[in-house]
Recover the amino acids of this structure.
């Protein structure tokens, strides 16, 4: 499809190779990549962009497989100008591009407890979109509001009822681009919060393949909730456990592998294609179903066209 693009103050790049922007380092080109300068630039662009043009809002690519044929769309990726973190009382307002870990650390310094975000990969915009959570806490528990630019260019503020948060899901409008998020955080002692985050990082590094190319957890837990981190946490219906029970820890296809260290992590061992990764994931889903009758649901978003 050929189409005219509006004039922008930000950056427009044609045929952008999306493999350079995803943590798994796979994927074909997008028709265009738009990196807006600020909210006004983004709003003006979407207002002027023909409604027939597909747009795909993209975070830092931490939870994404872009297929090898790429995306026939304008990919919108917020960056500089969308990564500020401001704290007023118990409210933390972060630009959508702010990394979850940075938000957790800044909040802790101010005596606010968003420590569950410390080990979640990616940006706060993506965390809101998928109601990210761990250690028994979720974005939904602390969400106050979010500002978005809708596909027609209107800027709106969404409240918790608008989002309809569920396990790993929300109802963000199609084509809407998150620009900033406000979270209401419980208070805590900064020293204790920092110590908790240090402990969380140590546990994560001991149990997850943090040095490999992955996109975090591949499948949602069939139990319907995140690991709590508590001693009495039940693992029978955790994704890693049903994958293990099906004998798939370390399973390979081309350059794709289910991690030996954590079997719910799909990794690119070096030369995987998006097709390798997705096909291995689908093979795992089939064999887990054959083994246990459980249908695993993807947590990683998969978009675009095959090659």
């Amino acid at each position: 499809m050929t189409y005219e693009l509006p004039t922008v103050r930000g950056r427009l790049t044609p045929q952008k190779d999306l493999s350079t922007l995803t943590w798994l380092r796979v994927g074909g080109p997008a028709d265009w990549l738009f990196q807006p300068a600020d909210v006004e630039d983004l709003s003006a662009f979407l207002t002027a962009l023909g409604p027939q043009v597909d747009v795909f809002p993209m975070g830092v690519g931490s939870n994404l497989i872009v297929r090898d044929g790429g995306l026939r769309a304008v990919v919108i990726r917020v960056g500089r100008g969308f990564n500020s973190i401001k704290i007023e009382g118990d409210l933390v307002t972060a630009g959508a591009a702010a990394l979850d870990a940075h938000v957790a650390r800044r909040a802790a310094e101010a005596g606010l407890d968003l420590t569950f975000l410390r080990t979640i990969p990616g940006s706060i915009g993506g965390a809101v979109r998928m109601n990210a959570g761990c250690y028994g806490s979720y974005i939904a528990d602390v969400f106050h509001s979010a500002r978005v630019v809708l596909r027609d260019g209107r800027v709106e503020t969404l409240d918790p009822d608008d989002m309809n948060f569920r396990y790993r899901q929300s109802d963000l409008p199609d084509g809407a681009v998150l620009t900033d998020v406000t979270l209401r955080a419980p208070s805590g002692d900064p020293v204790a919060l920092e110590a908790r985050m240090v402990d969380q990082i140590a546990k994560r590094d001991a149990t997850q393949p943090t040095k490999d190319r992955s996109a975090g957890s591949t499948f949602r837990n069939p139990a319907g909730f995140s690991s709590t981190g508590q001693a009495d946490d039940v693992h029978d219906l955790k994704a890693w456990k049903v994958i293990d029970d099906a004998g798939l820890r370390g399973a390979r296809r081309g350059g794709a592998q289910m991690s030996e260290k954590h079997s719910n992590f799909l990794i690119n061992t070096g030369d995987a294609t998006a097709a390798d990764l997705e096909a291995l994931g689908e093979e795992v889903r089939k064999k887990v179903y054959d083994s246990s009758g459980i249908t695993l649901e993807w947590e990683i978003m998969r978009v675009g066209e095959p090659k």
Observations:
- The chain has a mean pLDDT of 95.
